[in-house]
Amino acid sequence: MQLFNGTLRCLLRAAHRPGKYAAHLSAAAAATATRAPQQQQQWQRHYSLSADPAPIAMAYEMFETPNTDTNKPPLMIMHGLFGSKQNWRSVGRAIASKTNRRVFTVDLRNHGDSPHANTHNSAGMTADIKTFLAANGISKVSLMGHSMGGRASMHFSLYNTQLVERLIVVDISPVSMPRTLDEMNSIMLGMQEVVLPSNIPLSEARQRAKQHLLKTVAADSVDFIMLNLRKRPDTGEFHWACNVDVLRSSLNGFLNYGRNIHNKGPFLGPATFICGSHSPYMNPDDWPEVLHFFPNANLHWLETGHLVHLEKPHDFIKLTTDFLNS
């Protein structure tokens, strides 16, 4: 897969069906469930939905043009795991120009320039979105989310149907996830193990970190991960922009997504799913169950891997702008 596929292909492939989530675990999920109780409890604590999650104020960029119609619901774009708002700048500008809407690209919690939190789950991201809308005086919004951001946007739409005008989900399903958590755990463990002296430039630090990660991470994933390596200007200390510790401790929460939405919604507004035909993130067999949550959705396939918006930008922008303008 291209730049990002190797990183994200390691999430769980097991299919979760409405009403069967508690019993339906793949062999990979069952193996995860047999981890040491202490680690399992830690994961459950980070992903627990029982407590009201404390929202964070997301960092964002806004795109508009002289023709922007502020009466139209704006579009909020949410990135995937290890991504950031900067990955969506060109798409955000293009959509703002072609739809005359304000477009916000945001850094989700524990990513980019947004604050780190001690939890990472869709409930927390839903709280963050709601806080963002209130802070910016937005009563209705359209949402676009890629991968992890797609799951956050679906979760928000199912829990807050009255606040969402339209929904665009990019290469992710609410029903199933690909591959195993063990691979993702290995990637994050490798990131935690990186140790770099503060007296070297960022370019050299990225090369050293890259060589370390190549021991366990697919080569086509490493360059994307390196965008998260930062150097503190005051101390020279290197750090990851994404909150690797909390992301790793929250991995098991990916198993809970289905059971946390199975009795919510449906979202009756217009929705479109744009997926890569060479990506494992949307199983065509899941589409009838996707329609259970989003009955007014349609599905588009582009000849891409997971990074649909980067591999086919013109086709992607046309699909999204046609949908928003319809």
From TrEMBL:
GO molecular function, one term: carboxylic ester hydrolase activity
Keywords: Hydrolase
Domain AB hydrolase-1 positions: 73-313
Cellular component, GO, one term: mitochondrion
InterPro entries per the UniProt record, alphabetical: AB_hydrolase_1 (IPR000073), AB_hydrolase_fold (IPR029058)
Catalytic activity: 1-octadecanoyl-2-(5Z,8Z,11Z,14Z-eicosatetraenoyl)-sn-glycerol + H2O = 2-(5Z,8Z,11Z,14Z-eicosatetraenoyl)-glycerol + octadecanoate + H(+); 1,2-didecanoylglycerol + H2O = decanoylglycerol + decanoate + H(+); a 1,3-diacyl-sn-glycerol + H2O = a 1-acyl-sn-glycerol + a fatty acid + H(+); a 1,2-diacyl-sn-glycerol + H2O = a 2-acylglycerol + a fatty acid + H(+)
EC code(s) of this entry: 3.1.1.116
Enzyme class name: hydrolase
Protein family: Belongs to the AB hydrolase superfamily.
Listed name of the protein: sn-1-specific diacylglycerol lipase ABHD11
